[in-house]
Amino acid sequence: MEAKEVIELVKDLEKGKNDDSHVLKILQTLDKEVVATEKLLRETKVGVEVNKFKKSSNVEISKLVRKMINSWKDAINRSKKIKLQQAQANNTNGSGGSGSGAHNSGSTVDSNVSGGSGASDVSPDGNVSGSSDTRKQMKYVSTVPRNAKNDGVDTNIYNHKLRDMVIKAFYDALAKGSEHPPKSILATCKSIEEEMNKAYDCDSNEKSYKERYRVIYSNIISKNHQDLKHKINNGDITAVFLANCDTKELAPEHLKQKMEEITRQNLFNAQGATIERSVTDRFTCGKCKEKKVSYYQLQTRSADEPLTTFCTCEACGNRWKFS
Ligand SMILES: [Zn+2]
């Protein structure tokens, strides 16, 4: 049964909650049709609603509810166990947050099926390990020195001698010693060239276009500027910036300042975001064990890294973070 249908039935159940035969009919339908998954229970809150009838004075209803809740819990616990085994097999990166730890103990099942608002969420650990796996798969390892030719990348994008030459030169420079996949490097090169061409049209303004190319290229290959390449590949330094910045700004010292400024900006944004903190019961405070935790998420590193989640316990003020 689709989540949408379940939600409709849940609404129906709530509306006719004083009519025992109505309640029983809906419960029986749900019992027959619902395949319990954590996602479905979370989305529909069906577990929470059904559980409200556990203490019904109608024995037929209360008995059915107990049976349903138990079988849903079983189903979710089974899939949790499988997930956990997979996670252990993958040797998940330990996330320090006390919230996530408590979360893994299976408390989600209870909060989803029987307790509280049921607004619990999938384990953040699950998400994090998932994305780091993806990153591992994305790592590009080459046995030969990397460049467009060895990577099998076609840099003839525009059938324009100069523009394609620039893309190829950027590619060779950025791919050398990198573990980024060819597709991602080519995309980066294309967008740098595109921004360059927007700023200095290569046909009408060839001299400036070439000049900009030389500045960017020489900085990328510069030995005392090792991490520039990394930052460009990671997307920490954008194509727009490379194409339009004051060329002085590409010098290592200036760039360092620029990066510090970006970091400050990020922190500033984070403080702004605290206004939009949301309170959730998906995390448990490690200190007082309350489930009144507000959190916000932030990209503290590069865009392909997982988000960092900053938690504050609304009950005791305990703070922690994890990613
Ligand atoms: Zn607390």
UniProtKB/TrEMBL annotation:
InterPro entries xrefs: TF_IIS-typ, TFIIS/CRSP70_N_sub, TFIIS/LEDGF_dom_sf, TFIIS_cen_dom, TFIIS_cen_dom_sf, TFIIS_N, TFSII, Znf_TFIIS
Major subcellular site: nucleus
Region (Disordered): 84-137
Annotated ranges, domain TFIIS N-terminal: 1-79
Location within or outside the cell: Nucleus
Domain of life: Eukaryota
Name of this protein: Transcription elongation factor
Taxonomic placement: Eukaryota, Fungi, Dikarya, Ascomycota, Saccharomycotina
